[in-house]
Amino acid sequence: MDEDREALDLAADWADISQGLRKDLGQQLHSQWIKPIQVGSFCKETGTLDLFLPTEFSANWVADRFADRLSLAWKIARPDVRHVRISVHPGRRPLPELRLGGAGGGARRPANDGAPSLDTGAASLGGQEFGALVQGSVGLDPSLTFTSFVTGNANVLACNAAQRMAAVEAPQFSPLYLKAATGQGKTHLLHAIGHAYLAAHPRARIFYCSAERFMVEFVQALRQNQMIEFKSRLRGFDLLLVDDIQFIIGKASAQEELLYTIDALLAEGKRLVFAADRAPQALDGVEQRLLSRLSMGLVADIQPADIELRRSILEHRLARFAPSDVPSDVIEFLARTINRNVRELVGGLNKLIAYAQLTGQAVSLQLAEEQLTDILSANRKRITIDEIQRTVCQFYRVDRTEMASKRRARAVVRPRQVAMYLAKVLTPRSYPEIGRKFGGRDHSTVIHAVRLIEDLRTRDADMDGDVRSLLRQLES
């Protein structure tokens, strides 16, 4: 009876935790990685809770990226949980390891992915531990370096500032505050700064953590009467890297300690880097003195990646895979369609290649459309055929009425065919529906136009340039 009650309590706690993670991660990531988790047994003697996943691949993925968040959530829900162990469900036959890395390497996180902010644990380098929770931390991800960070107009300022912060000579600014939306590469740069700084200063002491981890360490030290030790260890570091600083909102005591730590480190010429999804001035619930410290150095924005940068990131990522035949039209399709953040972009490529390897299928445009439905639908901008017609007419300087007219002059027909092609590429409309928007034309006319423009793009550089330019205008 006690075991049944314990199982029910665990199930109820997991339901609450899972619901919270769904809100934090979004429906897609939650459904793919969190929902399959099964709660196993809980050992009260060791405080260890087992979480099971159906395959070794999924267990490794979740353990690598979400272990800290799962552990923290369970500790909040049940204080007697001290360790969370993630493994394959007993009795499951492990699948062969899927190697997404290059030859001789293990699975790597995506370029510019920034290692999902949910798994930012704490790293204590230079041989010094920091608090009980740091023990066993994975530390800095070896794959997240400046070499693996792909730059473009959207992120070149932040990347240059990060490199300056890690250089041998003292930077002209401190702290550095990296501001970017989720999945745009700010955490990648934090890891890269840590690696580069350690290479330039081999004996340096580096502390890397999330704001949540900072608060956990702070509360633990407070409860255990170890605040003096906490402060001395924290202020003994040469480089402080704090991710997701927005999560320190409202924690007055932790804010005050962070404020004093910043002042102490800056007074000694130490280097500090913070990252958040919003500007310092937009951090509600943070006292003014801390806001002043966070913004007193350099605030570097990372803008959403444009299509050229997205394409470069995919090509760079492909070069790090074991040889995989991914057609250029698939790369173009992913770069054009998955535009919300870089993490989703590279995650889509990972999923596509993983599915192809596991099933023995060739990577193709059709396979991408079939297997990445959720990602693609979440990223598609609602572009209408009317908007396409208006943009094409402005681009080619023809009257809007020509889209539905019967005129067959080349100066009119080609823009009309381009508009039909774009309508098929950018909207979910069927061939007959598109035909009706172009003066009631038959679906076969639309099919002919789409195939013609596809062919012309491969043979005519000017046509391909026109289409690319129109795509940028419509998707911006």
From TrEMBL:
Residues 1-96 are annotated as: Domain I, interacts with DnaA modulators. Residues 384-453 form the Chromosomal replication initiator DnaA C-terminal domain. Its main location: cytoplasm. Residues 357-476 are annotated as: Domain IV, binds dsDNA. ATP binds at G183, G185, K186, T187. Residues 172-320 form the AAA+ ATPase domain. The keyword rRNA-binding does not apply. It holds the Pfam family Bac_DnaA. It is found in: Cytoplasm. InterPro entries: AAA+_ATPase, Chromosome_initiator_DnaA, Chromosome_initiator_DnaA-like, Chromosome_initiator_DnaA_CS, DnaA_C, DnaA_dom, DnaA_N_dom, DnaA_N_sf. Residues 97-120 are annotated as: Disordered. Plays an essential role in the initiation and regulation of chromosomal replication. ATP-DnaA binds to the origin of replication (oriC) to initiate formation of the DNA replication initiation complex once per cell cycle. Binds the DnaA box (a 9 base pair repeat at the origin) and separates the double-stranded (ds)DNA. Forms a right-handed helical filament on oriC DNA; dsDNA binds to the exterior of the filament while single-stranded (ss)DNA is stabiized in the filament's interior. Oligomerizes as a right-handed, spiral filament on DNA at oriC. NCBIfam families: DnaA. HAMAP family: DnaA_bact. Belongs to the DnaA family. This is Chromosomal replication initiator protein DnaA.
